[in-house]
Write a structure and sequence with these properties.
By secondary structure, the protein is of the alpha+beta class. It has helices spanning about 5-20, 40-45, 185-195, 200-205, 215-225, 245-265, and strands spanning about 25-30, 50-55, 60-65, 70-75, 80-85, 135-140, 145-150, 155-160, 305-310, 315. The strands form 3 sheets. Strands 1-6-7-5 form a 4-stranded antiparallel beta sheet. The two termini are about 30 Å apart.
């Protein structure tokens, strides 16, 4: 499932095509994704203008001139693609011996982004062919952009919520702090972890403790902080909740790995793609995730990356330098 860096990459890709633009037409090709779409879903979007696109944890929030907010989640396999309505949209087919053709991206404000800058770097092509049958919702914007939501497994979701009710929205109101927010620091993390007997890996994966982290970036952050995923959560704080040096290292590791991942356009392991169809590149910079049996990259460490299972998920770490 896409984590915070992948969702932030998508947000940045959608913004030039959608912000300030009007929904001229909304093409709903399925009445249900993870949950059924509202019966008036199309009517509430068409004619409204996008005031801005934000993110909360792994959710995209499209703020509308109507006073509503379009709340969207990518699920397991969801991806957004932005096309230019002035150009034909060719199908991407698997080819042998040569690279597949690239679908023309939206050429509006994206032209202001120099090549090699912005979210996601490189010229990779996604291996998985696109099937229009999985384009379940398509937005036709007044900017000339066509934004399609493709989701083969249909675990993604879209929900329209009145802005005044956003704080009470069940999908959002139990989420913990944003790890890249200014308020997130060692003291905040220590308070959230005070007295917890679970492992650090389990605590950081809990969206009520920190929002937006998942298996990949928890493993990577713990390695950067040199903390074992098996360590008891309460050990990053004193009994009164005051953070110790471990909490400081952990917050620093979380912020650093998320920042680096966003700059690389996220991690493309199975389904994540940028809105222009290219892959994220952070998977090439993993230190421990999916690196079982490889030498630990920490300078001076002679350890080997190990894989264990915690709460039904694979955990990758170095037993030598993560204590």
């Amino acid at each position: 499932m896409p984590e915070l860096p992948e969702v932030e990459t998508v947000r940045r890709g959608l913004a030039p095509a959608m912000e300030g633009a009007r929904f001229d037409k909304v093409d709903v090709r399925r009445a249900d994704l993870r949950w059924p779409l509202a019966k008036d879903f199309r009517q509430r979007l068409e004619g409204s203008t996008v005031a801005g696109i934000g993110r909360r944890a792994k959710y995209l929030l499209v703020d509308l001139s109507s006073g509503d907010v379009l709340l969207m989640h990518l699920g397991m396999s969801g991806s957004f693609h932005v096309f230019d309505s002035r150009q034909p949209r060719p199908e991407v087919r698997a080819t042998r011996g040569r690279e597949p053709r690239r679908t023309p991206p939206f050429e509006g404000d994206l032209r202001s982004l120099p090549r090699g800058e912005g979210p996601g770097l490189g010229n990779y092509y996604h291996e998985r062919a696109q099937h229009a049958a999985h384009d379940h919702v398509v937005f036709h914007m007044s900017s000339g952009a066509i934004v399609s939501f493709n989701d083969p497994r249909r675990f993604g979701s879209m929900k329209i919520v009145p802005r005044r009710d956003l704080d009470a929205e069940p999908l959002l109101n139990r989420l913990g702090p944003e790890p890249l927010g200014n308020a997130f620091d060692a003291a905040m993390l220590a308070r959230a972890c005070k007295g917890k007997k679970t492992s650090l890996k389990a605590a950081l994966s809990d969206q009520r403790v920190v929002a937006g982290l998942g298996n990949i970036y928890v493993c990577e952050a713990l390695h950067r902080a040199r903390l074992s995923p098996k360590r008891k959560t309460s050990t990053i704080a004193a009994k009164n909740g005051v953070p110790n040096e471990r909490a400081e290292r952990l917050v620093e590791g979380i912020k650093a790995v998320l920042t680096d991942a966003i700059e690389a356009g996220g991690s493309s392991l199975r389904d994540h793609k940028r809105t222009d169809g290219e892959l994220g590149l952070f998977q090439h910079h993993f230190r421990v995730y999916d690196r079982e049996g490889e030498k630990c990259p920490t300078r001076g460490c002679r350890g080997t990356v190990k894989r264990i299972v915690q709460n039904g998920r694979s955990t990758f770490y170095c037993p030598s330098c993560q204590k």
